[in-house]
Amino acid sequence: MAERVQQPPAKRLCCRPGYNTNCRQGQRAGGTLCGGSGAAQGGSSKTQTPESLLDISARKVAEKWPFQRVEERFERIPEPVQRRIVYWSFPRSEREICMYSSFSTGGEESGTSGENSDETRLPFRRGIALLESGCVDNVLQVGFHLSGTVTEPATPSEPELVCSVSVSFDRCKITAVTCSCGNKDIFYCAHVVALALYRVRKPEQVKLHLPISETLFQMNRDQLQKFVQYLITVHHTEVLPTAQKLADEILSTNSEINQVHGAPDPTAGASVDDENCWHLDEEQVQEQVKLFLSQGGYHGSGKQLNLLFSKVREMLKMRDSNGARMLTLITEQFMGDPRLALWRQQGTTMTDKYRQLWDELGTLWMCIVLNPHCKSEQKCVWLRQLRRWNSVDVCPWEDGNHGNELPNLTHALPHGNPDLSSRPHRTVFTRAIEACDLHWQDTHLQRVITHDLCTHTHTHCPHDNHGSGGALFDTRGWPLWHEHVPTACARVDALRSHGYPREALRLAIAIVNTLKRQQQKQLQLLRNHKKELLHKGMTSVTNMEGWVGHPLDPIGTLFSTLLDTGRGDEEGGNTFLDFSGSMCSAKRSEPHLFPAQHFLDDGQSFVALAVETALIGLGQQRVMPDGLYAQEKVCRNEEQLLAKLQEVELNDALVKIFRKQAVFLLEAGPYSGLGELLYRESVPMHTFAKYLFTSLLPHDAELAYKIALRAMRLPVLETTAPSGDLSRPHHIVSMVPNRYPRWFTLSHIESQQCELASTMLTAAKGDGRKLETVLESIQKNIHSSSHIFKLAQDAFKIATLMDSLPDLTLLKVSLELGLQVMRMTLSTLNWRRREMVRWLVTCATEVGVYALDSIMQSWFTLFTPTEATSIVATTVMSNTTIVRLHLDCHQQENLASSARTLALQCAMKDPQNCSLSALTLCEKDHIAFETAYQIVLDAAVTGMSYTQLFTIARYMEHRGYPMRAYKLATLAMAHLNLSYNQDTHPAINDVLWACALSHSLGKNELAAVIPLVVKSVKCATVLSDILRRCTLTTPGMVALHSRRNSGKLMSLDKAPLRQLLDATIGAYINTTHSRLTHISPRHYSEFIEFLSKARETFLMAQDGHIQFTQFIDNLKQIYKGKKKLMMLVRERFG
């Protein structure tokens, strides 16, 4: 609260023409203590005495009448009467003071210090501490003005602070505050709280004076002059300029001050025209909201804004007019948020938390305009205000960034899907605007909310029709209320918000009874016309507007109203509704209790009715709304409602309700999300069914499984909807057959479907029949491979718990799900595929050897050839698997035979990737190994790369098959092509290895491979390396480990080395010319070194020296333009 040091201006002019000076001369001008004669405020007296008629009357007048009206009504008011009116005009409850000085709600019991460290920092708590520490002094009440000083004790970091505090009040409300502390906040500072509570708790210690104008009336001229002169003397530096100015104006006949009757008095109370409301610093409210919005959700700003909204609700509950005033200030700042225009311009959506703040804003305006005692003039002001905000371009839409397809709040839901292009967008204020057309004058509505059950008699005709809406009472004489359900529930919320919990409870019960009656009528209609409804694929209720996830949260409102009452959390109202136009006060005593027998039949409870209401709403079949935010809200509200339900402990009565509602949901056809007839775009029931399943399982397992299995459906993912078979229990109807709906929350929905299935699998452990049923449901309804894989893993974990023997039936379910995953992902890309394959082999191992043999027999439907050989067969053949399965020799051989068969089949299908694995797996079987080798040879001509062939060739050499390795190496060389500049190619090592292998086998093998090398390799450095290695040892006389012997070396003048030498020299010549074409000066030194290596190769020939000299001479002639380079050539080579 921005407390200002200067005094507030006087509210009205005061003069008393009815009094004459003679009657005032002897009257006492001094003050008396506030307690005076009569009842002491706060009840400090230990003895109880009857309250005087003067005090009773003065208290009522002080609560309702502005003091000016009292003065105008009576010509002369006795001083004792004035004193009692002034005394009773100060607030008597600490609850309102707490409300305006802290975020947390509280009442008169809040006087004790809070243990929470955060609470102790609240102004209200700090004010109490200052009061109880004796820091309040110099308290003086002059008329309707209270002043005093509050001393803030010194701290190690701050000196002692003495604050001057003043408070103006009227009709039991603080209307203005000032404090010299300079604190700026929405709420009253601790010093204001301390002074106000001092007056509330210790009224007998406060000296009370009449308004200063009354005291001045009692003075004669000499006394007035003395009074003014003393006042100026004491405060001459502050008031002397003002005093002189006023004196000049008064002495001037034509001055403005002489044109008005009377003079202002800041202590004289309110005028007739003053609005009677608690002091609220509007500027600080605006600044704080603007600050919170600018922080964009950081630093807890979202929480602070929600606390402000809670403060508005608290004000509404106290029937404080500042609730609407504060919400108006908040809304103006929200509408002025610069991010709205930016988001609209960029086409981006606001954050989810910010969006929820806008939702709460719209809901609060609904509560305000639905105030049962709102005056029509005030409602018109709000309507104009709401329409102004609604017309702003950046005003957020009700469903996020998508057009809303929902009907008008006050109209019945239309059938079909009308043209939506012409319908304007609905904003967050649209429903509040529509609610301005609602009223509370309906006779039956008044009867519903003003009469308890015990007051109803059977004289009310249960078949008395209320227009076309249905009966006014059911067969038991209970009142019904036929209205658009979200609208009716908005009335309940409004009644609760404005402090009418009893009336809200009555209306909520009537709405729930209407819903239950509608359930029975729907079930009866379905039983009578089931075939017709299924055939037409229609329903008499078009659930375009779901109750769970609705902007008005109707089910949440009913549930909280009933549950809070049942738990005793609902505060009793201190007034009751009187539709004659006035508010009647009830006697304020103990918190009001709501006995169930006054509202419900015998044996019923509020908690049971709340639970049944939630089940009705959650089970409603409704269409998934459009837009990301609206869909997320459906999921969020459902989870919030279920979380509240889970807090309720089930008893026999609640289990009975669960059974009743579960049966209805299964039999209710198109009216239930768990019925036989399901729209393709209906909101799935997975989360709700999981809750029902776990709740019913200990009491009625068969019913629990029926619910869960029925809820597994997810027709939106079905490619086509069945049309001809009407006898199927999962008949699906598509409302929009040509449109694939955009379900932004589909991933979350599928995960919930998976959770439901996992819950059933866990519960069905040990029951083969149920496991088989659950498995069929999973295979039919779940379309995501990742979720089926998760279920397979879950089943495996449950089946192989360490504290028990493996559950073979559940293991088989796990394996079956794993096999389905394999089939689903076989032809699609999935980054978890290798993990899935490895897991499946592990699962099959746990099931047994027959499962492993089975997956190898049908590998082509489950795995790629690479997976089958490199993962499946390899794992099956490992020692770990053999030990784990405790196989005998016969079983090992059968498993190995299957693995070899698989390997050969894979090698035939994909020789490039499977040949090596096939050879490895077939090593111990000669026939199989030869078959695999032949497959490699057949594929080597056209289907395999040199890299694959070199790899297999090295494997053959390592296994002791050098001739086969040589054969494969020559086939690999035929596929290779190394150009002149590829001197770092990865295949170089393979080429060198192949030549070394050929050299080790003998002259014939080397002679055969050298033509292949000459044909495939054009890189001079590689060829010279091969040539050098071949001249160091004798072919066939050197082991592969390069140990020398004394054999005869091969001649470079004869084949095959002569061919290799000529090819090497030719490669050097060609490479030299190629490099000189685009050579730059920075590569000259490198080029000279290259020529030096070339000379070494040239000199290996008999006439090599001559050839190299001619080569150099040719270079000098051809490239004589490169003078610097040729100079370097001459320096090195002559």
Describe the structure in your own words.
This protein is mainly alpha-helical. The protein is 54% helix and 5% strand. The protein has a 6-stranded mixed sheet with strand order 2-7-3-4-5-6, with helices on one face. It has a two-stranded antiparallel sheet with strand order 1-8. Helix 19 crosses helix 21.
Tell me briefly what this model is.
InterPro entries: Znf_SWIM (IPR007527), ZSWIM4-8_C (IPR048370). The protein has about 1150 residues and is mainly alpha-helical. The protein has 48 helices and twelve strands.
Distance between the termini: 100 Å
Looking across the biggest beta sheet, what order are the strands in?
2-7-3-4-5-6
Q: Write down the overall mean pLDDT.
A: 83
Number of strands: 12
Count up the helices. 48
Organism: Hucho hucho
Domain SWIM-type: 163-200
InterPro entries: Znf_SWIM, ZSWIM4-8_C
GO molecular function: zinc ion binding
List the helices and strands and how they pair.
Blueprint: E1 13-14, H1 21-24, E2 32-33, H2 53-64, H3 67-73, H4 79-88, H5 94-99, H6 117-120, H7 123-132, E3 136-142, E4 145-152, E5 161-170, E6 173-179, H8 190-201, E7 207-209, H9 212-217, H10 221-234, H11 236-251, E8 263-264, H12 282-294, H13 301-317, H14 322-335, H15 338-346, H16 352-369, H17 376-390, H18 430-435, H19 443-450, H20 485-497, H21 501-528, H22 530-536, H23 554-567, E9 575-578, E10 582-585, H24 606-618, H25 628-646, H26 652-667, E11 678-679, H27 686-696, H28 701-711, E12 732-733, H29 746-763, H30 768-781, H31 785-799, H32 808-825, H33 833-847, H34 849-857, H35 865-876, H36 879-885, H37 889-909, H38 911-921, H39 926-940, H40 946-958, H41 962-974, H42 988-1001, H43 1003-1016, H44 1020-1030, H45 1057-1077, H46 1084-1098, H47 1104-1118, H48 1123-1133
Parallel strand pairs: 3-7, 11-12
Antiparallel strand pairs: 1-8, 2-7, 3-4, 4-5, 5-6, 9-10
Helix pairs in contact: 2-4, 7-8, 10-11, 12-13, 12-14, 13-14, 13-16, 14-16, 19-21, 20-21, 20-23, 21-23, 23-24, 24-26, 26-28, 27-28, 27-29, 28-29, 29-31, 30-32, 31-32, 32-33, 33-34, 33-35, 34-37, 35-37, 35-38, 37-38, 37-39, 38-39, 38-40, 40-41, 41-42, 41-43, 42-43, 42-44, 43-45, 44-45, 45-46, 46-47
